[in-house]
């Protein structure tokens, strides 16, 4: 294999000038071990050992019950189907396959160009869904095992058996199959994304290696490490400068982050020695930073056919989406999205019109259309788990057990499907042959496998265990095949029946659920009954309401007049005159001043009006509790000041003082004012 960063040949001589012998391939490509020349014996099967699975499908009616992998019995399983609309034909399964991989690491590939499609799986025992990983890991520690080689494998299945098994040294991220050119014979490439590399195989032999380009390093960080290399900068000062760059939200290299992790903030001699040792060990190595691949898909280049030329699209950890050329030797286009992409889906053709749907870790879905990032952003209420596209719609599964459907162009939400439990995997059922149909296959946590046509549930079956990954495509000579891997390591194949009804029912008008009565709570039923009663007796209820409202207004007016005539308010209309009284208290205590403002708003003058103050004589002292006003001329305000003394301020007590403006010829006060006295402060 040859790194793309050191490639300087023209595209015409790319695959003719890089021919090496078998020894050179082994030295330049340590990730893979060449497969054996002879075929391995097939795994234990449930029926015939024929290589064509379509022949096995005819005898699948006599399958046996499932057994655990440790029992060593037959590996067949029994799957129940929906008798009202049977879709799946059980072809073959192997409970002892000991294989498990997500959908991103499963692909159907015509490896030799013989139209005999095989199942390729990039398996890793570190995949958390695998329940048999601990047993497999313990077996890999045996003396005859290859250690890390047994942790990650590329497994090729043909018919009902295992064809090849190639050990891998690194954990695979994605596995894709595509064609590089239109030259005969048509042999596809098998691309395996792992870490920062994409390894390409042709005829199961190492063919080419693409490595992600190095990331751009900040100039200030580069200067700091150059000074450390030349001993121009102290290690503790370098730590502080790197922390300042980190506080500015600048992306630091892995070396800088490891260097900062050694700092404990003490500045001791031991810490200085550790930092200096870290610098000395890396003094002669250049500062580099390479990203990691998170997802990979294939975008068709000029034709929308199965055997047309494609281009790899990579999502990286540094929020980039890279589009490679058809030979995967250089980057054609680079896009930067706001967050790290976790899954992608392609539609269209690169040379005509294309869309790249990207699901990111921030819970949003972005669209890249014709070299531009669209302004339409789909914001989800929870993190997405999977993403597929069917025609012009985007189907997104979320962690809230919901599948949302959006229009690909406008980004408008069309419908939602609410599921009873968590979503494990999603795949598109693209039926080919005499009939064409596209449906959505959903695997759930409760071992259910559902098929949706639009938002209608078309079929539901139970699987023997929780699905870890599935892929729909061509296997052998059967066009419509579904491969399933389970958490217990089992492998299963199902075909789509020729008589399967995958077309959704055309429905016009309101949905059928609208005619089904709802089980309403008692409060809701009572509210609906009251609403009906109000509609029936609307006129009578309105008349009663108006009558009660008039009575309420009359009662309020009478009470207000009584307050004014009894002298209990700040305004009085007695004796043919109108008086207004305003009283304010000033001071913090124990000495206060009460300022009175009285005004005659009537037409006649008033004479000999007494003002009386009622208070607690044990608590307050007032020199003039009674005073008489000689005359009140209309429309002229009169102001008076009353001195009040608190007798016991240390007790912290206060009581209101009532001020009465009386009438000489009546015992009922004209106006009454209540002054709330504050607590007295000590002098």
Write up this protein.
The termini are far apart. Helix content is 16%, strand content 37%. It contains nine helices and 38 strands. Helix 4 (219-229) runs antiparallel to helix 5 (235-247).
Indicate the topology.
Layout: H1 22-28, H2 53-57, E1 88-94, E2 106-109, E3 118-124, H3 133-140, E4 152-158, E5 161-168, E6 174-178, E7 189-194, E8 197-202, E9 205-211, H4 219-229, H5 235-247, H6 254-261, H7 269-281, E10 293-300, E11 310-316, E12 320-324, E13 331-336, E14 341-348, E15 354-360, E16 364-369, E17 372-373, E18 378-379, E19 384-390, E20 393-398, E21 402-407, E22 413-418, E23 423-431, E24 437-444, E25 448-453, E26 456-462, E27 467-475, E28 478-486, E29 491-496, H8 522-536, H9 538-565, E30 571-572, E31 579-586, E32 591-600, E33 606-614, E34 620-622, E35 626-632, E36 637-646, E37 657-663, E38 666-675
Antiparallel strand pairs: 1-29, 2-3, 3-4, 4-5, 6-7, 7-8, 8-9, 10-11, 11-12, 12-13, 14-15, 15-16, 16-17, 16-18, 19-20, 20-21, 21-22, 23-24, 24-25, 25-26, 27-28, 28-29, 30-31, 31-32, 32-36, 33-35, 33-37, 34-36, 37-38
